[in-house]
Input
Amino acid sequence: MLPKIQYQWFTIIIGNLVLLVMLDITAGLIYKKINGNAWYYDWKEGPTEKNLLRIKSNMYHHDLAKNANEKDSMWGDAIYTTKTNSLGFRDRINRKISLKTEKKRLVFIGDSNTEGLGLNYEETFVGLIENALKGDHSVLNAAVSSYSPIIYWKKIEYLITKVGLQFDELIVYLDVSDIQDEASKYKLNDTGVTSGFKGAVSERKKILQSELIKENTILWAWLRSLRKKEKPTVSRKSIFSKKETQTYENSINLHRGSWTFDESIYNEYGKKGLKLSAIYMEKLL
Output
């Protein structure tokens, strides 16, 4: 039995520790709700330059900045220009987009193939379609690299209900990598799309405790990073740090596309990714 005074101090210490943990979890949840991402991942990304082209979105994970003009965009060995309009859509020039138009309006959405990484806007397939229509239609490109059906749905929903954008046709370009993204990269929270569990789907149970700490705390996540000797990274871009030249042919043979022919990888994430993709694509109807 502990002496009375020691017992009182013991209960005070334990009570304060429990209170500290509760406050830490509350602060972590509030931070994530306000910023759309866990504190740990913001800290891990480290400081970034101002006037970034690729930015976070609280509603649908990430986006392009409005009215950007980046003349030294890079993808692999390609250096090209990226311009966006007033909606943050890739465009031929910086311009203000009216929410209504008398012309028939087409909105394209997809991932890096539709955004046109490595190409000037006029060379992308959306730019070629716009040029072929010779101004008879209003053509908008809402695509951003690393998008997938869950983001297609939430971004289009946001554009219609919050922005008030009106259009006649929505053209969605699916990519082979969308399936893995749906299975392991993104998830819904109370405010929108956020980062999902890291690592392969089959490894989630092993890292659940670590992810709960990183997702929902600040002080505890910071102490964990000290124990792991982790340090924030300094990045020029908020979304991409490594760029590799890829073609559609060799992308199929990478892990992200091998669910199409490898049964073990299909079972790992392909089946689940297809199911989720079908659910989110249906919400666009």
Confidence is low (pLDDT under 50) at residues 197-208, 234-244.
